[in-house]
């Protein structure tokens, strides 16, 4: 008996797994729906690839450092500092306040602050020599962005200032330059920069400072053993409280759960430290998280496929696994495609156009593989509706045979002459299929054609005796049984026999029908009549006369039945049927 405590413990284990999968799934999906202030990875890569080129637009002043517009000035600063040319980077700062000697140092500090706190989308900056005239800033100033500190907010501004020769160019405003030391003190690397060599902060790999790569490696290395311990704890709880489910979960989900926990722990720890806008852009892609969730989904499909295959096998539908495998593969492909599309969406790519292209390609592929798809759907129909199964003997069209295989394209049938017919599933599923293997009984329905010279009492004798024999036969079912004098034929008096033999095998039905035919021949002979000669056959000798002695005996039997009120025509009474049931010997006497 399952106690309430056991139910609670099992519920906690199941809840833990659901929470784990739910949190990871939410973390992946929410990226596509939640707007972020920082850049996407796609935008970061595009901006990093931008190279400043000399302006050729009319009205833009010629300048050695291309500082004629806010956009080119900011892009030039970012390019110079990315190349660690801080001397050139200082040329984009307004150092008129007497801090020229510190220009390269300030350029480096500003680059670090911008890289950690502010994403500068150069495409939104003005490309006009006059700047943005609608930003409502006093003087010829354009705001690049705003950084919110602990006690105040800092406006990052570029300003149009005169060059030594009087030509107006754009530089980072003096007010922004004056605040660079405060910005660096609050948003820089602090004491960490005094403990580590400067190249860890200046050199970048894929736009990310080396020091951040080191932090990521250390955090990931520390999170992995924790993830392993948590996974082991989850499996231990499953083995303790859900022992029947533990082997399957341990087999299919140990790897995905470990990776999922590792990714979640690493992301949590990385979010606890201040990184950079490029790291945040990479994080928005949720690459490892998408891989972990997709891996989990693939293992779920494997588990579901295994369980369904087990149920099909226990139900005697082992052949259906032929259809289960390609369906599982198709679902895996769709899952992987969905994960890739979600990942691209997280990276910042617009997948609407891609989906439109895929839909058009899908229509073209569907048209090209129309027959293949028809056969596939035909196989699905055969496996789901089960008109026939492997091993069934059936009639289809003008042929009969045994079903040997139901494949994805065609059904193979072994005919009576031992040849194999391959019928496309689309055609086979639309055929009129007569499944002979599923008969629960065989129909026995001969028509007895008696000679025209047969007397009415002889016919009555035949009717009663044939019914008696059928009711008494152990292999004939009494339900629906009848024997009737139905017609005057051209050359015979026709008696119809309608009965069901209680056998399921075709070979056994032939044996029972043979026994019934022989017994009916004996009854006809005992009645003193014969089966009519077919009109197509002509005899050169006169026909043999009827047996008058047997005819008189048959008529005497009928008179006796009348006198005893036991002439059971048109129907036998139920008590007589019960009395006769099974009174004949079968197999007949003399059989081995």
Task: Describe it.
With 592 residues, the protein is an alpha+beta fold. It contains 20 helices and 14 strands. The strands form 4 sheets. Strands 9-8-7-6-10 form a 5-stranded antiparallel β-sheet. Strands 11, 12, 13 and 14 form a 4-stranded antiparallel β-sheet that branches. Helix 5 packs across helix 6 (174-187), helix 17 runs antiparallel to helix 18 (506-526) and helix 17 (456-472) packs across helix 20 (574-580). The longest helix has 32 residues, at 210-241. The two termini are 58 Å apart. The relative contact order is 0.06. The model is unreliable at 1-37 (pLDDT under 50).
Return the average pLDDT rounded to an integer. 79
Q: Quick one: overall form? A: rod-shaped
Major sheet: arrangement of strands: 9-8-7-6-10
Low-confidence stretches: 1-37
Number of strands: 14
Distance between the ends? 58 Å
Radius of gyration (Å) = 47 Å
Largest sheet: 5 strands, antiparallel
Beta content comes to: 5-15%
Q: If helices are DSSP runs of H or I spanning 4 or more residues, what is the number of helices?
A: 20
**Backbone structural class:** alpha+beta
